[in-house]
């Protein structure tokens, strides 16, 4: 088998490790294909600029909004909403989810209600949140919390359920009590899965950002998107979308690094 055939065989074999250079090359190629398609459609005139701005127009919009500090202000406002909502949600969802997955009585009490609520569309609650809370930061944070909290509960409960009973029984055999099992067995064993859940739901928090800021907001990336839509500034809309994607990518990588740091044994 030639070297080329060997690499092709490895690429098409499930769960086979590949060289870092090959992974980086494939990732770069994916980005280049997307950017090339975008540039071809926009610069080539195949799609009108009213619907698809050129990459250069988006960069010009970034420079224009960044020069007067407007862009930075809106980015910070959106980061504040997402981080506050996500942290508050996680502080409650992580311990409660672990209890749901570990204690059958807690699961029986909460699971039917949680499974019902998590299928309700967040957008349908926005008018109620405005009525109950108002139109300030609290309303936007509440949208983020509602969007991720119940998903976190179910996913973290599944992580806790997946901890081997043999591990728990072994700890009892070695003299552990129920408190020791919760804090020294279930907690550490669930840690990698909990971090993976937080990484995934952090992505969902960013997707709910625009919903949180579309109504009665005076700052944020969702706000400037809505404002740009009214003025047919498609380049600004694309810029806001790109920034949200980049911020989500940054937080995703931070969670990956955190997992490697605190749960390296689970790799």
Structure notes:
With 267 residues, the protein is an all-alpha fold. The protein has helices at 3-11, 20-43, 55-67, 70-102, 104-117, 126-133, 137-161, 165-173, 178-207, 209-214, 221-230, 234-262. It is built from twelve helices and no strands. It is flat and about 70 Å long.
Spans where pLDDT lies below 50 across 5 or more residues: none
Largest sheet, described in full?
A: none
**H/E element order:** HHHHHHHHHHHH
Number of helices: 12
Q: What do the pLDDT scores average to? A: 87
Helical amount: over 70%
Instruction: Tell me the structural class.
Output: mainly alpha
Q: Tell me the radius of gyration.
A: 23 Å
User: How large is the share of residues in beta strands?
Assistant: under 5%
Protein traits:
mainly alpha, 0% strand, 267 residues
Break the fold down into its secondary structure elements and pairings:
Blueprint: H1 3-11, H2 20-43, H3 55-67, H4 70-102, H5 104-117, H6 126-133, H7 137-161, H8 165-173, H9 178-207, H10 209-214, H11 221-230, H12 234-262
Helix pairs in contact: 3-12, 4-5, 4-7, 4-9, 4-11, 5-7, 6-7, 7-9, 8-9, 9-12, 11-12
């Amino acid at each position: 088998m030639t070297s080329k055939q060997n690499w092709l065989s490895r690429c098409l074999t499930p769960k086979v490790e590949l060289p870092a250079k090959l992974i980086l090359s494939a990732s770069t190629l994916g980005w280049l294909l997307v950017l090339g398609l975008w540039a071809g459609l926009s610069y080539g005139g195949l799609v009108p600029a009213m619907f698809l701005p050129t990459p250069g127009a988006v960069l010009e919009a970034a420079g224009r909004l960044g020069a007067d500090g407007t862009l930075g202000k809106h980015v910070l406002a959106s980061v504040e909403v997402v981080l506050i909502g996500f942290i508050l949600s996680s502080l409650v969802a992580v311990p409660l989810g672990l209890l749901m997955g570990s204690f059958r009585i807690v699961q029986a009490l909460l699971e039917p209600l949680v499974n019902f609520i998590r299928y309700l569309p967040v957008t349908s609650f926005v008018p109620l949140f405005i009525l109950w809370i108002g139109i300030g930061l609290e309303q936007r944070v509440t949208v983020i919390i509602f969007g991720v909290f119940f998903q976190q509960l179910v996913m973290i409960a599944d992580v806790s359920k997946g901890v081997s009973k043999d591990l728990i029984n072994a700890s009892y055999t070695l003299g552990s009590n129920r408190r020791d099992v919760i804090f020294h067995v279930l907690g550490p064993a669930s840690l990698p899965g909990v971090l993976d859940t937080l990484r995934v739901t952090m992505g969902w928090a960013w997707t709910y950002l625009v919903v949180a800021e579309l109504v009665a907001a005076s700052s944020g990336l969702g706000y400037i998107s809505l404002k740009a839509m009214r003025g047919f500034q498609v380049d600004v809309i694309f810029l806001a979308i790109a920034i949200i994607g980049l911020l989500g990518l940054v937080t995703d990588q931070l969670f990956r690094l955190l997992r490697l740091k605190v749960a390296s044994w689970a790799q």
